[in-house]
Cbb3-type cytochrome c oxidase subunit CcoP
Amino acid sequence: MSEAPKTDHAYDGIEEYDNPLPGWWKWLFIASIVFSPFYWVYYHNGAKGRSVEDQYGVALAENTRLQFAEIGDLKLDGPTIAKFMAKESWVKVGESVFRANCVSCHGREGEGKVGPNLTDEAYKNVAVLGDIGKVINNGAGNGAMPKWSNRLHINEIVLVSAYVANLRGQNVEGGRPAEGREIPPWPEPVVEEEPAADEEAKS
């Protein structure tokens, strides 16, 4: 018979050996409890950009810089923004740029916080589609909207402009009241024609 100590517990005649957890395990468990509130405050209730999701968005935006060789340096104007508004994969890149840099002022869905609501039909500094890119690039409101030309690649500005333009008319619930004036609808993007098969063969 084993002489190992037993607990005072007995269930239907079944006794239980007294085998306590190792001290290091108990202290590790206690330390994890003490650490968890600080972890929660830092990653889930702290500054924007600290969550795993936000960090992923930043990493994704960085990775897209490697993809820009595919499209070259874009021109920051209305037709280019309209063109990329219709390209879902590139609009998602613009969304990741927005989530990484713009949510603190404009809200996660563009509903507006310190900055204006981007999901209604009213605009303060935009009259035509190309103005979105100009505002992002150069700033507006005497610095209330900072310029991003010194922090973002020109392609990121074009793509985030396409994403912001696509937010128009979504009217996110609980958004900031409309500011500015209503403007005409965005122009339809120009559809690029694919080269004919015989022309490709000749080239």
